[in-house]
Every structure is written in C-alpha cells, then in structure tokens.
Specification:
The complex is a heterodimer of chains A (346) and B (458). By secondary structure, chain A is of the alpha/beta class. Chain A has helices spanning 19-44, 59-66, 82-87, 92-99, 133-147, 165-176, 196-199, 224-239, 268-278, 280-290, 296-319; strands spanning 74-77, 123-126, 153-158, 181-187, 190-191, 194-195, 216-220, 245-250. Chain A contains 11 helices and 8 strands. In chain B, strands 11-10-12-13-15-14-20 form a 7-stranded mixed beta sheet, sandwiched between helices. In chain B, strands 17-19-18-21-22 form a 5-stranded mixed beta sheet, with helices on both faces. Chain B is an alpha/beta fold and 458 residues long. Chain B is elongated. Residues 90-109 of chain B have low confidence and may be disordered. Classes of the chains: A alpha/beta (346), B alpha/beta (458). Chain A: Its cofactor is thiamine diphosphate.
Chain lengths: 346, 458
C-alpha cells in the first residue's frame, strides 16, 4: 500500500537516463519557465487580464509525467495549467494568444488562462473550480475503460483541492470500477495562502487513498527523473487494469498563487532556499554538464532557442487580433459533436 | 540593448500604484527573479520581480512616487558594457501598446436573448396523420426511449443511484440491466457530485451518458458540474469540446415529502446558456423528446415528474420517432385567452380550460415542452389572436418562467395585449408537510380559472 519515498533512490537514476532524454527534459522545463516569466511580464503590461497562475518551480512534475505517457493518454488539470499544456506538446503561440484573449488562442480568446483545451493533444482543460477536474478526469478514464482501450488519464490537482469532498467520492468510484486514472497531487505546500499544515491534520496526502484501496506514494517533485520513474510505475499499474494510483508529488511554486498575491504567508528566505538548493532545471543542467552530455555552449544554444520560441509566442499573442464580435454568439451549442464519434478513441 | 522596465499591473484591477521602495540601486546586477522594487497596489504591497537579466542602468521614477500609471517606464536595464549615460530619458510614456483598443462596434444582436426561432411558428404535425397509436404511461415511454437509443448507439449508457439491480427508484430503468448488463447500466454510490462529474468527463471523451438523479433535489449537490463543467466547456474551448450528456430525473413536488424534496428547478436551469432544458407533460412527448435528448450533442436537462409517471397517454406506435426541441404543442385551440404551461403545469392548465369552456370561455393551451430553446413564435402568434395571456407553472413566483415570458411578450407584442399578463405559480414558501398547507402551496386549476377571469374582465 502507501509508501514513503525512497529519498535517495532517485538521485542514482541518471546512469540509465540517456543524453537525449536529459536534453529533452531540460528543454521542456526551460520552455515552461521562460514562457511563464514572459506571461508574468505581459500581465504586468496589462496585456493579460484577470487571473493568471504561474507554474514556475513546478516544471519537473509535468515534464516527468509526460515522459511516462504514450499517445492516446489523456490529461486534465486545474487553473494552473500553462505548464501542462506546453509539456503535452501544445503550441506556445496558441497558449500565449489565449492568455492575451486573442483569436489565435486555443479557445479563440474565449477561455483565458484557466480554460484551454486540445483534443489533438488529449488535453481536457484547464478548470477553474478547485477539484472539479478530479471526477471529470475519472470520467475520461471511464470512457477509455468503456471503449476497451489501454489509455490512462493523468488527473492533476493540488494540495488545496485534496480537501474537497468530491475527490473522495471519485476515489471510491475509481477504485470500485478499476478506472485507469492516475491522481497526481501536486503538493506545492500552499493552497493560495494556506499552508498544508494549517489546513490539514494528516499531511500525508498520498495515504488518503488507502481507505479506498488505492495505492499511492510520495515523490520528489523537484527531481524530474524521480517523477518519471514514479509515473512509469503508476502507468503500468493502470494499464494492467488494476485501477487508479495516487502520486503525491512534492513540489514548490516560486511565484504567488496568482499575479495579485502579496506573498505574506511565507518568507522570502524559504522561497530562495528552494530556488538555490532544489531547482529542478538546475538539477538537470548539472547532470548534463557533469555527465559531459552537453557543454555550457550547448546549453546556451538551447537557452537561446527557447527564448526565441517564447518571444515569438509573445509577438504572436500581441499581433493576433481580438476575436470578432460575432464570436460572442458562437460555440454555445454544438450542431453536431465536434469530436466526431467515440470510435476515434476506441 | 537597453530595455525599459515598465510599471507593472499587479492585480486585475490595478491602473496605477505607488513605487514604495527600490531594492536595487543604479549599477546593480539584476537576475531574472530578483526582487527589484516594492509596489503598492490598490490591494496590497507587492514585490516586483525582474524578468530580464542585466544591470540597472537608470532609475526613472524615484521611490515614494505615487499614482504611477501602469506601463510607465520606471527604470532602464542595460547589458554589460553599455553605459547608463547613453540612455536618453524616454519622452512621454509609451502610449500603451498594451491594452487593446476598446471594441467600438455595437454588439451584433440588439436583444440580450439570441433569437434562435424562426419568426413563423412550426405547426407541422409531430408524426404523420393516421399513425396507429397505443396507450402507454409516461414511465413506460421514458424506458422505451432509453432502450431504443441504447440499442441504436453503443456509446449510450445509463448511470445513477439504483438504476440497475433495484430496477430504478421510480422504475424508469426497469429491465434495462438485464438487457444491457452492468457495463451500460451502472449503479453508483450515493455521490451526486462525483458521478455527475464522472458522467460529464465521459461525455467530454465522446460517450453519451444518461445520468439519472433519483430526484432533481439531489442534483443541487452536483449543480457545479452541470453548469460549470457541462454547459460551459464548449464555449470555453472555442468549440472544441462537446458534451453530449442527459441529466434526467423527477423534478418538482411529489406528495407530502416536505420542503427539501419538493422543488421545481425549471427556471434555474432555463437560465443557463449551453444547456437545453426539456420538460414533457404527455407520454408521447416524453418518449420523442427523450430520444431527441440522447441524440443531442449538448448537455440536456430532462425534467420529469413523479406524479405524471403513472399517467397514461396515447403514443404513436412507430419504430422510431423524435420530437424536435423548441417546438411547442398547441394542446387545445381557443380564441379568448392563451394559457402557456409545461410539465405538470399542463394538467392544471388543461383542467382549467375545460372548466372555462363550460362557462363559455375558450382558452388556447400551449405546452412549451422545452424551455431552452423556447418557442417564442408560437406564444406570440397565439397572443396576437387572443390578446390575453396567463402562464401556469408549479415553481416559485420570483424570476419564474412566467416572468420571462411576460417580459418577452411585453417587448414583442405589447400592442396586442388587452390585459396585463398574469403568472400563476406555486406560492413563495418552502413546501410545507401538512396536507392542507401543501395543497395551498401548490398551483391549482381554480387559481388558473380566476386568473383567466381577471384578464378577460369576466
């Protein structure tokens, strides 16, 4: 059943991780970080409105789990969703243009930061109501089981959502019906401004599945290789038809809950310590350099390439026009199923 | 190359702020993520982090400055080797490249309610004349509709509390488990928000779930998924994510079950763009509309009624028939007054029409059948003929369906009205248990008769 993490096991992993894999993780995590920094900047300029929740610090979670996924697997998450979209291959341009509310965005500007989707990449949102994505994710897995394929669904939620009642209704049904769903608790230690310790008596969130018969484990979410290894184990469990699995991924967000977070609930030293000692991108950077997989110049070239992608996305997001006023009245009702028949998923 | 650092917007509503404190001074190296200043917004004092790397070449706005507009350059970041002296203080603050120009054009539709109906009402028959009819209860009609659709489409399945082994709390799903097995007739635990969410997720993935609520009272636990997850996702995804799902179950007052189990949710759901709302009265409508609901690519709220389940009606004996949404049925023709109703309200409206007939008043009775889309054209056409309108529904009076229809008719057929519209509704009280009080809380045909006499000045 529930296990504590083997804290040191993951550190030994690099020996069986190829240069190509490490470079991919580095690139993917860096893309998320630079993208989010740029989004923060555009927010500051008033180009992005409303709520904007940045993923900076948590990059290893989605990049590690995407490394364990195969084509056809689904993912669904909360409103802190930009990283998930980039990690599953959605275009930086479309995401950024949605943030600026433009026609070129994934939802034609009608969804915003918290509501983006891609049927092509099997990304089911982007949900603004805390924990609502948990039963929805189990429902995606229900459909895959119903259709008899071996896809799994990664259902991401935070330590805050873990205290919503619908999570436990879902745990019960997911285990009762052996649904192929991986519940990924991204424990960044703060639900908005409330730390886990202030909201939760029993702080081992992965252990809460035990009451329902769902195995779970805690994972070091600042180590992309540890996340990938745990993801592979969870995926194997689900694909084998053994039902759901819980991963509590211990991570940390460097930025505020949203852009308007005055950050009075934690010390600057605490944030700085994580950045200095546990940064997930620095970790892979060191592995690459120490293993002589890449030189400083190689990494600089990647940095430049990422910067170009991000700058291009920002330009696109500024240039793309606002949606036509007629768009106000479209997409309220479907004339037919946009996704076609369910056979696509079979 | 020098980069201007602009006064940031640090909350959704911030337009200007106070530059409380500089934490870096001119000449300091700045890394991405470093706190460079503290800024007071309309809500709080915020730390302002650098995005780009470089050297703080020049501070343009001194600390303590108040009312600094968002996007005003506050400092200049230079690269190594550049000199701060090279920087010319920027002239006027760059006119916001930021905020996109306010939309100038008028919104395309003049009315807030999008007109989906054709101006001419659709009076075509629901099934060919001369069709053989059979007598059937509403309960049997609903079960037949689900069975036929499950036979037709493998992706249709039923889930809910007691739908399988128990054969349905109200026996609507009787026999379906035996016929289709537990894969397609799924008994759930008592977890409304959980299974409503799972059903919605399955629909987003392309299945066509029918989610039964034992009654719609319990759907209040799940209403977030009905509205936020099912109804809005197509719009929020720019048309990518359809959600073909039916939420069905008994709605409204049953008998002597008290306040928490007796409420009509018609007006609640009818308010939500993205939902379709169906509320049949007769067995034929129950069957034809249920089949249509299951085939619809959108989320459909299907409001049934426990008291009507056992009532018998004539149903066309056809292999396959559906009734389109947004097409009201004229249940009785008349020239003196229009009665508009739906669901169990139709029982009161028809009873009242019969009594009025005995007194020489001919009422035209319109059964809306669907509340979203709503058949405005049929109502308006009838009002133009009778010049008088009474609406009849079981729900609460405030913000009722009748209120909405009154407003629409006033706006679109004011000159045709010879009397104010009257809305007959349930009383503005939680449903009492005592038999005599419950009777008074509900709408009665006598009240409808009285209302008609008022609007006909009889």
């Amino acid at each position: 059943m529930a296990r504590k993490p083997a804290a040191t096991a993951a550190k030994a992993a690099p020996s069986n991780t190829s240069k190509e894999e490490l470079l991919k993780y580095y690139r993917d995590m860096l893309l998320i970080r630079r993208f989010e920094e740029k989004a923060g900047q555009l927010y500051g300029m008033g180009l992005i409105g409303g709520f904007c929740h940045l993923y900076i610090g948590q990059e290893a979670v989605v990049v590690g789990l995407e490394a364990a996924a195969k084509e056809g697997d689904k993912r669904i998450t909360s409103y802190r969703d930009h990283g998930h979209m980039l990690a599953c291959g959605m275009e930086a341009r479309g995401v950024m243009a949605e943030l600026t509310g433009r026609e070129g965005g994934y939802s034609k500007g009608k969804g915003g930061s918290m509501h983006m989707f891609s049927r092509e990449k099997h990304f089911y949102g982007g949900h603004g109501i805390v924990a609502a994505q948990v039963p929805l994710g189990a429902g995606l897995a229900f459909a895959d089981k119903y259709l008899g394929n071996d896809n799994v669904t990664f259902t991401y939620f935070g330590d805050g959502a873990a205290n919503q009642g619908q999570v436990y209704e879902t745990y019960n049904m997911a285990e009762l019906w052996d649904l192929p769903v991986i519940f990924v608790i991204e424990n960044n230690q703060y639900a908005m401004g409330t730390s886990v310790k202030r909201s939760t008596k029993s702080t081992s969130l992965f252990g809460r599945g035990e009451a329902f018969g769902i195995p779970g484990e805690q994972v070091d979410g600042m180590d992309v290789l540890a996340v990938k290894a745990a993801g592979e184990k969870a995926v194997a469990h689900c694909r084998a038809g053994k039902g759901p699995y819980i991963l509590e991924v211990m991570t940390y967000r460097y930025r505020g809950h949203s852009m308007s977070d005055p950050a009075k609930y934690r010390s600057r030293e605490e944030v700085q310590k994580m950045r200095d000692e546990r940064d997930a991108i620095e970790h892979v950077r060191e592995l690459l350099l120490q293993g002589k997989h890449a030189s400083e110049d190689d990494l600089k070239a990647i940095d430049k390439e990422i910067k170009d992608i991000v700058n291009d996305s920002a330009e696109f997001a500024k240039e793309s026009p606002e949606p036509a006023l007629e768009e106000l009245w479209t997409d309220i009702y479907a004339a037919d199923l946009p996704q076609g028949s369910a056979e696509e998923n079979a | 190359m020098a980069t201007e650092i602009l006064m940031p917007a640090l909350s959704p509503t911030m337009e200007e702020g106070t530059l409380a404190k500089w934490l870096k001074k001119e000449g300091d190296a700045v890394k991405s993520g470093d706190i460079i200043a503290e800024i007071e917004t309309d809500k709080a004092t915020m730390e302002f982090e650098a995005v780009d790397e470089g050297i703080l070449g020049k501070i343009l706005v001194e600390e303590g400055a108040q009312g600094v507009k968002v996007n005003t350059p506050i400092a200049v970041l230079i690269e190594e080797g550049e000199s701060a002296d090279d920087i010319a203080a920027p002239a006027a603050p760059a006119a916001a490249e930021a905020a996109p120009a306010e939309a100038k054009a008028e919104a395309p539709a003049a009315s807030a309610v999008e007109q989906v109906n054709t101006p001419e009402p659709d009076r075509s028959p629901d099934w060919p004349e001369g069709t053989k009819m059979k007598t059937m209860t509403v309960r049997e009609a609903l079960r037949e509709a689900m069975e036929e659709e499950m036979n037709r489409d493998e992706t249709v399945f039923l889930m809910g509390e007691e739908v399988g082994e128990y054969q349905g709390a109200y026996k609507i799903s009787q026999g379906l488990l035996d016929k289709f097995g537990p894969r397609r007739v799924v008994d759930t635990p008592i977890s409304e928000i959980g299974f409503a969410g799972i059903g919605t997720g399955a629909a987003l993935a392309g299945l066509r779930p029918i989610v039964e609520f034992m009654t719609f009272n319990f759907a209040m636990q799940a209403i977030d998924h009905i509205i936020n997850s099912a109804a809005k996702t197509l719009y929020m995804s720019g048309g990518q994510m359809g959600c073909p799902i039916v939420f069905r179950g008994p709605n409204g007052a049953a008998a002597r079950v008290g306040a928490q189990h007796s409420q009509d949710y018609s007006a609640w759901y009818a308010q939500i763009p993205g939902l379709k709302v169906v509320i049949p009265y007769s067995a034929a409508d129950a069957k034809g509309l249920m089949k249509q609901a299951i085939r619809d690519p959108n989320p459909v709220i299907f409001l049934e009624n426990e008291i009507l389940y056992g009532r018998s009606f004539e149903v066309p004996d056809l292999e396959d028939f559906t009734i389109p949404f947004g097409k009201a049925r004229i249940a009785r023709s008349g020239k003196d007054v229009t009665l508009v109703s739906f669901g169990i309200g139709m029982a009161h409206a028809l009873e009242a029409a019969e009594k009025l007939h005995e007194e020489g008043i001919e009422a035209e009775v319109i059964d809306l059948r669907t509340l979203r889309p709503l058949d405005y054209a049929t109502i308006i056409e009838s009002v133009k003929k009778t010049n008088r309108l009474v609406t009849v529904e079981e729900g609460f009076p405030v913000a009722s369906i009748g209120n909405h229809i009154s407003a629409y008719v006033m706006e679109n057929a004011f000159d045709y009205l010879d009397a104010p519209v009257i809305n007959c509704t349930g009383k503005d009280v939680p449903m009492p248990y005592a038999a005599n009080l419950e009777k008074h809380a509900l709408i009665t045909s006598a009240e409808v008769v009285d209302a008609v006499k008022k609007v006909t000045y009889k």
